[in-house]
Each structure stands twice: as structure tokens, then as C-alpha cells.
Amino acid sequence: MLEPEQIVEDLIACLQPQVLAGKRVLVTAGPTFEAIDPVRGITNLSSGKMGFAIARAAREAGAQVTLVAGPVALPTPRGVTRLDVRSGRQMHAATLAEAQHADMFVATAAVADWRPAEAAAQKIKKDGSGRAPELRFEENPNILAAVAASERARSGALYCVGFAAESENLLAHAQAKRARKRVPLLVGNLGPATFGQDDNVLLLVRPGGVEEFPRASKLVLARQLVAAMAAHAQTPWLQSLAT
Ligand code: CTP
Predict the structure, then answer these.
(1) Is 185 near ligand 1, meaning CB less than 6 Å away?
(2) Does the CB atom of residue 109 touch ligand 1 within 6 A?
(3) What is the model's pTM?
(4) Which of 76, 86, 100, 127 has its Cβ near the most Cβ atoms within 10 Å?
């Protein structure tokens, strides 16, 4: 039998407008973990909460949702298909495969920009010299850029949403990032103020304009964002991508 909280969750979901009925939505969420050796690695402070809230909101809105999640300790939203990955390369491979069947893609994951060029097979030991080992880094593949450059996205069959976590100059950075990534919608937020928090402020940047969603819980913002995505995806957004 379902738990009372699950029944309440289902009832709330039933009351949401079905703006994504029949759509397949793909979401990336959380940090990635880049191994240095079998017991160490590099990661970041992303909690995954925004991406999980978007997956839940999209499901409530009637979509079939796949969530590609980095290492986070969050429960899977009801009715959402979850694929757990660890590294940026694993997230890249899983997401590109899923994107072939998606109608919408929302990239919220804080993918590590760099990974150690080689992960040591055994734990790296101190050699007694007092010197730290030198690590070489390689850039991780950019998942959003790869999906946005895919045939489905370039033909207008796949609507892509990027996120930008900035520390200052949010509007200018978000506008530049939207144009650079060639996506119809870029959602800006201030990274240090949102990582791990339950609420946030979002700045939506589309080719024709900017809209701010004031501070609210991540689930409320996710529902507003889903409504905005559904409405924008019905406009001739592909033609406006160059602006
Ligand atoms: N992203 C991604 N794959 C990466 C890096 C980022 O899919 N390897 C996505 C994020 O999920 C987010 C968007 O790209 O939707 C913006 O990420 P960000 O790191 O802010 O963008 P960058 O282009 O790396 O810009 P910056 O130079 O500010 O780091």
C-alpha cells in the first residue's frame, strides 16, 4: 500500500495543468565525481535539488521523464525513470543516448569542467618526500553543447534548456551563455546562493526577453519553469535562435 505522503504527492500531481502531456523530458542533475584513485576524487557542491524538482514538476505536468543523476542522496520523484551515473563522461554517454528519444532536455547538472587525465588503479601513497603528487587534468565533454548540436535539436524536434550558475553579473553572463550554447532558454541563478538550498531565484533568458521568477521553493520554481518551457516550445523558437 502507498504511504500517506505518496498519496498526497499523487493528488497534488493530479491537480497540476497537464502542459507536457505526451512529451518525453530528459533532465541531468547533481554534481559529477571525477576519480583520482579508487578512494579519492573531485566533485562540487551541487545538491541536485533543482534538477530533481524539475523532473518531478515535468512528471506532474504529464511528461514521461528520464533523470540522469550524478552522485546525490535524493529520493527519485514518483513515476520518473532514474539513471545513476558518476563521472562526467558517464553522464555524457547516458544523456546522449537518451536525447535521441527526448522532446525536451533540461541540463541542470553541475558537470565537472575537468577530470584527472588518468585515474590511478591503486590508492596513491605518500612517498615520504613531503611533495604532493602532480595531477594533470583533461576537459570533460560538454553535454549541453553536444545535445544542442545534435540533429534533433538543430531541426527543432528537441527543445533544450541550459542552466548557468554564476557568481556575479548574472544577466550579462546568462545572455551570453544562451547565445553561445544556441539554446532557446537559459536559466540563470547565483551559484553560491543556491547550492544546497531549498529555495532560489531564477532568471529566464529567451532570445526575445528576460523574466525573473522571484524567490520561492525549488519545487514552485520548477513548476513555473515547466509552464514557461511548455509555452515557449509551442512558439516558433527555432527561427529566433540566431538572435
Ligand atoms: N554543462 C554540461 N556539460 C558540461 C558543463 C556544463 O552539460 N561539461 C551544462 C550545465 O548543465 C548547464 C550549462 O552547461 O546547463 C552551463 O554550465 P556552465 O558550467 O555554467 O557553463 P560553461 O559554458 O562551462 O561556462 P563557464 O565558463 O561559466 O564555466
Answers:
(1) no
(2) yes
(3) 0.95
(4) 86
* 44 given a catalytic annotation: yes
Which ligand 1 atom lies nearest to the CA of residue 161? 15
Using a pLDDT cut of 90, give the percent of the chain over it. Answer: 85
CB count within 10 Å of CB 9 equals 17
Angle at 240 between CA 225 and CA 176, to 5 degrees: 70
Residue 107 pLDDT > 70: yes
Query: Reduced to 3 states, what is the DSSP secondary structure of residue 169?
Result: coil
Pairing of strands 24-29, 104-107: parallel
Q: What is the pLDDT of residue 5?
A: 85
226 lines ligand 1 (CB under 6 A): no
Neighbouring CB atoms inside 10 A of 134's CB total 5
Beta strands in 113-220 (DSSP E): 114-116, 137-139, 159-166, 185-190, 199-206, 209-217
Residue to probe by mutation, ligand 1, list 50, 111, 166, most atoms within 8 Å of CB:
111
| Cα–Cα separations (whole angstroms), residue 26 to 17, 35, 68 | 19, 26, 8
